[in-house]
Amino acid sequence: MGSITSPSSSASASSEKFPRSSVGSVVVSSKRLEPAYGIYAVFSYKEHIDARNTSCVMGCYDPSTNKWSHESFVPGMAENCVLKNFAMVSVGTSIYIVGGSIYNVEVRSQVLRYNVVTKEWSTCAPLITPRHSFACSVCDNKIYVAGGQSTLDCAMGVSSAEVYDVLLDKWTPLPCMSTARYKCVGVTWQGKFHVIGGFTGNKMPFMDRCSAEVYDVANQNWGHVIGMWKLDIPPNQIVVIDDKLISSGDCLNVWKGEIETYDPYLSLWYPLRGSMKKNLLSFSCPSNAMNDGQTSEPLERVCLTMAPIGSYLYFMAGYRTTGDPSSCCTMSLVHRFDTSAMNNQWETFEPVEIEGERELCSHCCVVQLP
């Protein structure tokens, strides 16, 4: 594992503003999380709407203060190249950025490790198979990946899988899944690595796209669950809270108006009590938030991801102003749902204005801070 240095911000020092220019960054709730957590996400970022330079940056969201902070530029990225369709997971106080693709350039096998305590980047052993749009999850402090696409010019997925030992810095091949699939979602549930949904061009039957492959870590073999997802469209994101699978939508409709949880006995997804919130993604802001403006401008949503912390589920949305073509700012709005509460389960934090335009590159990950 080799150490690397994050790109210097001296060439674009003002990009440091990206997470720090905020408006009303005060939480609605007085509750504080113990222990401390950080929600980390990677964004493509440009400071001005007409800027030619696009950076790939990591930010950290503090749930206790409703504030974003600049963490680091992602190293090893050529100018104006943005990494997408990668997996981002945490093991201990380290974040791993696995694989991904750079538009019209390459599918990557590179694996990067970021230590949130020392703020240092290092390179890890690369994937055996380059891949993007794949399933990834952590089980027993090992990183499991499966499926995805290995080239830019092919609409077919792969069935291969592999596991990374963070202590040995080594990837080991796993048995292949029964079906090749990409845009599948990975989640660890009940001690097993689940690869849910996805598709492979026109050759994958509907029933397979609605199914899941389940890797039994103890027995080192795959199982197949028919109809676990039910939809022809792949899921957007699936997380676990209190040993329950949680979803909010698919890759075309990321918010369906309520949170759904999976019943393994009936093989059905059903609404979580109290989770209905039709206006989760509806948001407009004053045209001049700093000067008590009375008019509102429509905002275009550019990202949505969710993060589980304890019994809380955070929904993190980003919006770009569409009314003024000369403006360049992103509004961050966070909702929190308490799965353990009997009433008043939703809280909405004050919106935060972030200078510049940023767009989510992959789903976030949560780190428990020391």
Automatic annotation (TrEMBL):
<protein>
    <submittedName>
        <fullName>Kelch-type beta propeller</fullName>
    </submittedName>
</protein>
<dbReference type="InterPro" id="IPR006652">
    <property type="entry name" value="Kelch_1"/>
</dbReference>
<dbReference type="Pfam" id="PF01344">
    <property type="entry name" value="Kelch_1"/>
</dbReference>
<dbReference type="InterPro" id="IPR015915">
    <property type="entry name" value="Kelch-typ_b-propeller"/>
</dbReference>
